[in-house]
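Progress note, sequence design subtask.
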C-alpha cells in the first residue's frame, strides 16, 4: 500500500533526519514530499540569492540521501519561505529582498525542470502580522512563484496565514489570474475545506489530525494528508510526528471512515495528478 505524506521537513543539524524517515517507514509510510526549510536552518545566512541557491542544493542532496539510504521514496519541493523574505526585507530593504528572492525562485524552477524537484515551495505569505508593504510584496512573490511553476508545469506548495473560506476565494483569484492549472496549486496546512478548495481551484494538503481528516472525508476525497513534521529537537510536539499519516490512514481504513478507494485516491491518484509523478504499486 502506498502512503504519501505531502509535507515533511528534515533537518540534519537540529533533528532526527534519516531516523525520522525510518520511523515514517516503520509505521507503513512509503512516499514523502520533503519540503525545503530555510537557508538559515541549513547553515547559510539567507542574505542573498546565492545563499538560497546553496541551501536548495543542500536540500536536494538531503532528499537524494533519503532515497539512497532508506526504503522511502522522497521528492523535493524547494522555494524561499515567506519568513525568509520578511527577514531579508527588514535587513536589506524591500526591493533588494524581492530581487534576490525572485532569482532564487528562478533557480527552484530550474531544479524542477531538471527533475530534481517536483514543486516550488513553500512560498506564500507570513502567518504573522507584517507591515503592509511586506504583505503586498509577499503576494507578488507568491504569484511570481506560481507563474514559474505554470511555465515549468510543476506544482507549488503555499504557506499562508490561517485560512478560511474567504481566503480560499482570494487565492482562487490569484490562481485564475496567473493561469496555472488549478490542481497544481497546493495549499499546505489546509483546513478541511475540501469542497471550497475544489470550487476555487486549489488542492488542499490537510494536517492529519483525527478531527481534520474526519471533517475532510465527509466532503470527499480530493485532498492529500500531511504532518508538517519539522524535525527539530528544540520544538518537540510542535507539529505531528513522522508516523501520523500512515497511522491515521490505517486506523481510518480499519474503522470504516476511509474506504479502500479513498486511500487510493488520497495517496496515489491525487499526488500523481498534482505532481505528475509515476509511482510503482
Ligand atoms: Zn512546513
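Output:
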Amino acid at each position: 500500500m502506498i502512503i504519501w505524506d505531502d509535507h515533511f521537513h528534515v533537518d540534519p543539524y537540529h533533528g532526527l533526519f534519516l531516523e525520522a524517515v525510518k520511523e515514517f517507514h516503520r509505521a507503513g509510510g512509503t512516499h514523502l514530499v520533503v519540503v525545503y526549510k530555510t537557508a538559515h536552518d541549513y547553515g547559510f545566512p539567507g542574505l542573498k540569492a546565492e545563499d538560497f541557491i546553496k541551501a536548495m542544493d543542500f536540500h536536494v542532496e538531503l532528499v537524494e540521501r533519503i532515497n539512497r539510504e532508506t526504503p522511502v521514496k522522497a521528492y523535493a519541493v524547494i522555494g524561499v519561505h515567506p519568513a525568509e523574505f520578511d527577514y531579508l526585507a527588514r535587513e536589506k530593504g524591500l526591493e533588494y529582498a524581492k530581487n534576490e528572492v525572485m532569482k532564487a525562485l528562478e533557480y527552484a524552477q530550474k531544479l524542477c525542470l531538471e527533475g530534481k524537484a517536483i514543486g516550488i515551495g513553500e512560498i506564500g505569505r507570513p502567518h504573522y502580522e507584517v507591515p503592509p508593504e511586506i504583505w503586498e510584496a509577499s503576494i507578488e512573490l507568491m504569484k511570481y512563484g506560481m507563474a514559474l511553476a505554470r511555465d515549468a508545469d510543476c506544482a507549488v506548495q503555499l504557506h499562508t496565514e490561517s485560512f478560511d473560506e474567504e481566503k480560499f476565494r482570494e487565492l482562487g483569484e490569484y490562481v485564475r489570474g496567473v493561469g496555472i492549472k488549478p490542481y497544481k496549486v497546493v495549499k499546505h496546512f489546509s483546513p478541511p475545506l475540501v469542497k471550497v478548495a475544489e470550487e476555487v481551484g486549489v488542492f488542499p494538503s490537510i494536517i492529519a489530525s483525527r478531527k481534520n481528516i474526519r471533517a475532510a472525508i465527509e466532503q470527499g476525497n480530493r485532498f492529500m494528508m500531511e504532518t508538517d513534521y519539522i524535525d527539530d529537537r528544540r520544538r518537540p510536539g510542535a507539529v505531528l510526528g513522522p508516523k501520523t499519516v500512515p497511522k491515521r490512514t490505517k486506523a481510518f481504513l480499519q474503522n470504516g471512515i476511509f474506504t479502500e478507494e479513498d486511500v487510493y485516491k488520497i495517496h496515489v491518484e491525487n499526488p500523481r495528478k498534482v505532481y505528475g509523478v509515476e509511482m510503482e504499486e
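The CA atoms of residues 67 and 156 lie 22 Å apart. Work on this subtask will continue into the next period as scheduled.
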